[in-house]
DNA sequence: GGCCTGTATCGACGTTCATTGATGCAACCT
DNA sequence: AGGTTGCATCAATGAACGTCGATACAGGCC
């Protein structure tokens, strides 16, 4: 229940220097675009927000997410799957319920990617 | 040639506290999602990268952008329009050529939105 | 076992999006 | 003025996406 995620906003090997550091090549752009595309939907953005506002280590049960939207349960499940495939969240089933959380550091790395003109520095 | 942009990642009134601060409401999510959706395409992401890597105040001529992609000229123009409508870039015609640049601060505000659990602070 | 609840997957449908060729408009050149 | 180049807009087409009902799967409970 938690494979097939991207490793774009990669832990250490942070994919690339940053949006403003140097022009992205096609592969980098394609991988990164998947992440932004996942965030490019109002429903998914609210989901992320609901999950992320639980803080580090925080979780949200699907049963809390579902009633927050005027959408069918399969649609909710679909959006959660996309966020997971984008490498933004992960989940675990515990008994009857499934809990989702934000993968640690992802948002910070994404933010760093957007900011980062810190090209000059300890690269050596 | 430079109206109809969003004001989502708004200058001062920064739209909202941040993704992780509190769950977004529908309107906030809808506005923000447009920005992420604009970045959610490999072509547009590379465009942004090419423009942003020119640095603050830097510009890129469309005539430089176009040959960098294996796409028709109308398609390039279309993507640039979307980025502009998302409030990420702006442009100006100077003589024969049109130059695009990243709107100052947008990327930083977007990054801050993604990071920001710094809810407490000088809001007054 | 059988039933009920919570969640994921499947298939279908309508809408949105990326892409293109054709065309229009603006600025330069002679 | 007429021709040429750079870029935007338009209209059409095929692919991708969001949504749903139906269904399948997993776990708890009786």
From TrEMBL, chains A, B:
Transmembrane segments: none annotated. SUPFAM superfamilies: Winged helix' DNA-binding domain. InterPro entries: ArsR-like_HTH, HTH_ArsR_DNA-bd_dom, HTH_MetalResp_TranReg, WH-like_DNA-bd_sf, WH_DNA-bd_sf. It comes from the Bacteria. Keywords: DNA-binding, Transcription, Transcription regulation. It holds the Pfam family HTH_5. GO terms for molecular function: DNA binding; DNA-binding transcription factor activity. Coiled coil: none annotated. The keyword ATP-binding does not apply. Residues 24-121 form the HTH arsR-type domain. PANTHER family: ARSENICAL RESISTANCE OPERON REPRESSOR (PTHR33154:SF18), TRANSCRIPTIONAL REGULATOR, ARSR FAMILY (PTHR33154). NCBIfam families: HTH_metalloreg (NF033788). This is ArsR family transcriptional regulator. It comes from Streptomyces cellostaticus.
């Amino acid at each position: 229940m938690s494979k097939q995620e991207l490793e774009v906003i990669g832990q250490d090997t942070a994919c690339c220097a940053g949006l403003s550091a140097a022009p992205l090549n096609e592969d980098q752009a394609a991988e990164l675009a998947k992440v932004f595309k996942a965030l490019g939907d109002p429903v998914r953005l609210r989901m992320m927000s609901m999950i992320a506002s639980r803080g580090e280590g925080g979780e949200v049960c699907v049963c809390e997410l579902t009633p927050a939207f005027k959408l069918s349960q399969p649609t909710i499940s679909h959006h959660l799957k996309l966020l997971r495939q984008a490498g933004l969240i992960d989940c675990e089933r515990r008994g009857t319920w499934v809990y989702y959380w934000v993968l640690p550091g992802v948002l910070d790395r994404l933010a760093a990617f957007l900011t980062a003109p810190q090209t000059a520095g300890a690269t050596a």
